[in-house]
Specification:
The chain is of the alpha/beta class and 149 residues long. The chain has 2 domains: 102 residues, 3-Layer(aba) Sandwich (Rossmann fold); 41 residues, no CATH class. The chain has a 5-stranded parallel beta sheet.
C-alpha cells in the first residue's frame, strides 16, 4: 500500500519537465494538491486529487512566511495528516513546526531507488538540473552516496 501525500508545484513541474511524473504515482497514493498548486502547475491529471482546505486561517498565517501554493499545501497536508512533498526551505521548516512530515524531490528519488521504482538516481538529477531545477551540491552528493551511485 502506497503512502498518501500532498504535493506542492515545484516537484510536479520538475518531474513533468523531464517526463518522470510516474515516479510520484509509483510511490504515493492518493496524491493531493490544493487549488493554488493546481493553478501554479497548470495541468490536470486524473490521479492528482484537488483537496479542499478547511482552515483558511492556517493558510493565511502560513502566507506570512511562504507563498500561497506552499501555504495551501502545508495546510492540506496538516489537515490530512500526511506527508508533504516540498522543496522550499521555508515551507519545509513551517511544515515541520506544525508536525507535518516532509520529503523533497531528491528525497523521493532516493526513496524510489530504494523501493525499486527506478534503477538509478544520477541521470534523473542530471535531467532535472538541465531543466532549471536547482539541486545543491551537498544534497546531490548526499543523495548519490545514500544510493551508492
Amino acid at each position: 500500500m502506497r503512502e498518501p501525500a500532498v504535493c506542492d508545484s515545484t516537484c510536479l513541474i520538475g518531474l513533468e519537465r523531464i517526463g518522470k511524473l510516474e515516479i510520484l504515482r509509483e510511490l504515493f497514493e492518493p496524491i493531493s494538491i490544493p487549488p493554488e498548486v493546481e493553478r501554479e502547475f497548470g495541468k490536470s491529471f486524473p490521479w492528482l486529487k484537488i483537496g479542499n482546505l478547511a482552515s483558511i486561517r492556517l493558510v493565511a498565517a502560513l502566507q506570512m512566511v511562504v507563498d500561497s501554493g506552499e501555504a495551501e499545501a502545508i495546510a492540506l497536508a496538516s489537515e490530512k495528516n500526511c506527508l508533504l512533498i516540498s522543496d522550499d526551505k521555508q515551507a519545509r521548516a513551517a511544515a515541520k513546526r506544525l508536525g507535518v512530515a516532509v520529503i523533497g524531490t531528491v528525497g523521493l528519488l532516493v526513496r524510489a531507488k530504494q523501493n525499486g521504482v527506478i534503477s538509478t538516481v544520477k541521470p534523473i538529477l542530471d535531467d532535472l538540473e538541465l531543466n532549471s531545477f536547482f539541486i545543491g551540491r551537498a544534497l546531490r552528493e548526499e543523495a548519490l552516496e545514500l544510493v551508492n551511485e
